[in-house]
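Action item from last week, closing it out:
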Amino acid sequence: MKVKVYSTPACPYCYALKDFLREHKIEFEDIDVSVNQQAAEEMIRKSGQMGVPVTEINGEIVVGFDKEKLEKLLNIKNEK
């Protein structure tokens, strides 16, 4: 499974998302779009969004910290 997270250091939702992935032991590539203009353009092209976080999971795009969608795409069982 290939997971990419487009984020910035000033984004609290980005930290929440990355903590969530680490908590579930999901490896991911963290791309700081505040310093990587090419990655920022790639993120906008793929998601249609300028806001972060944007997560790409095996080609599927998740905009924001959409826990439900992330759990589904990452096959994480929700412990309720």
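Closing note: The two ends are 25 Å apart (CA to CA).
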